[in-house]
UniProtKB/TrEMBL annotation:
Native source organism of the sequence: Hymenobacter armeniacus
A Pfam match: PAP2
Entry keywords, A to Z: Signal
The protein, known as: Phosphatase PAP2 family protein
Gene3D superfamilies: Phosphatidic acid phosphatase type 2/haloperoxidase (1.20.144.10)
Signal peptide interval: 1-19
Keyword Electron transport: no
Residue intervals of the Phosphatidic acid phosphatase type 2/haloperoxidase domain: 214-335
């Protein structure tokens, strides 16, 4: 119920006002190995032997000496430890995540997945025009206005050089626009803020880490998505000058900024960030099994809305979704520590919770070593992602 309360709070916050889009239980095999901490597992309460596991495990959250909830048993033998994150420290983790992504995405066991992404993207590209036309026909039959319309609550102009970056606070005024704003930046900000507020009030490190990882995953995803958009320059359906749109590869910055919809269709940023959000929450709260079905269902509505309003082609989706999933997995993997059981007997002497030592941030783990290369000698500094 705690997670449901957080999500309901974020939903109420989001529906109060939305802005323009920012454009932007799985394992984690292939990432660096877990730095496991050896620590006894807690004994289950006596009634747990006859109770549903999901009814008992979420309540096993012992507090440390500072009164913080740091350790969570989410399944038999599966306990995760979460350190308290510092505000906005997640921004310093983005370079690490970008550096780890190629090793995570292009490992050998992902060959089939990568091939599937290519095949599905090409197959959808062939059918793109037919899919958009069909989606809009269905929208007309259902009375869903395809135009993305909104009412501006306030507008603050802001420019950086030639780039116009106003701060707007809007509300959608039709059902299709409401579905579209499920992927808006304000929606994800509301979700992340809700976890941060709840975690601060309850001294709940998992909620705080979830908020931190959402920021980390969404911004990492957004950087790569924006880079790909500016490299591929694909037309959005509603401004397309031919079937399936044109591709203006490597448009200049000024050309891109002059009319963004003419260049920013591929890949989707809305579904990428939505996938990142769902994956971070679902991986940190695996005992709440409704997260993925509900999240994927909302993503389906978002995906349809973007076809109906002509913002995206269906072939823009697979790569965007994969990027959001990958960066979410990396953020979660780096944000928690697996705790191993030391005894099969929960009543064995010495049981209890011992806080594992904190890990140094990745950017403080560089190593200096001497080297000799021909006539040259000196020292080198290396950093392992």
């Amino acid at each position: 119920m705690r997670l449901l309360a957080i999500l309901l709070f974020s939903l109420l916050f989001t529906t109060a006002g939305l802005a323009r889009p920012i454009g932007a239980p799985g394992d984690s095999a292939g990432l660096p190995a877990d730095t496991s901490r050896t620590k006894p597992a807690p004994a289950l309460p006596a009634p747990a032997a006859h109770a549903n596991l999901n009814d008992t495990l979420p309540h096993i959250h012992p507090r440390d000496a500072n009164g913080r909830i740091t350790d969570y048993t989410v399944a038999p033998g599966v306990t995760w430890h979460y350190d308290k994150p510092k505000p906005f420290r997640w921004a310093l983790n983005i370079p690490r995540d970008l550096g780890q992504f190629p090793g995570y995405a292009f490992r050998k066991e992902n060959k089939g997945t990568l091939m599937g992404l290519v095949v599905s993207s090409v197959g959808l590209w062939v059918a793109d025009q037919a899919i958009v036309d069909w989606s809009q026909d269905v929208g007309r039959q259902l009375g869903l206005t395809p135009k993305s319309t909104q009412r501006t609550l306030f507008y603050v102009p802001f420019r950086i050089g030639s780039a116009n970056l106003p701060f707007e606070f809007n509300v959608p005024d039709n059902l299709n626009s409401t579905f579209y704003y499920l992927g808006d930046g304000w929606t994800h900000l509301a979700v992340a803020s809700s976890f941060w507020i709840y975690g601060g009030i309850k001294k709940d490190n998992r909620a705080l880490r979830t908020s931190s990882e959402l920021g980390e995953a969404i911004f990492s995803t957004g950087l790569v998505v924006q880079a790909l958009k500016r490299l591929t320059g694909r037309q959005s359906p509603y401004v397309a000058t031919k079937d399936r749109g044109e591709w203006h590869l490597f448009p200049s910055y000024n050309r891109y900024q002059s009319f963004v919809p003419n260049y920013d269709a591929f890949p989707t940023g809305h579904l990428a960030t939505a996938m990142a959000t769902v994956t971070v929450i679902a991986d940190n709260y695996p005992e709440y099994r409704f997260v993925r079905p509900v999240g994927y269902g909302l993503m389906g509505l978002l995906g349809y809305a973007m076809l109906n309003n002509g913002v995206h082609w269906a072939s823009d989706y697979p790569i965007g979704i994969a990027l959001g999933y990958g960066f979410a997995k990396i953020a979660v993997r780096n944000g928690r520590t697996r705790v191993e059981e030391t005894s099969a007997d929960p009543a064995a002497p010495g049981t209890g919770w011992v806080r594992p030592p904190k890990r140094r941030p990745w950017y403080r783990q560089g190593h200096v070593a001497p080297y000799t290369y021909g006539p040259f000698t000196g020292a080198s500094w290396s950093l392992k992602w």
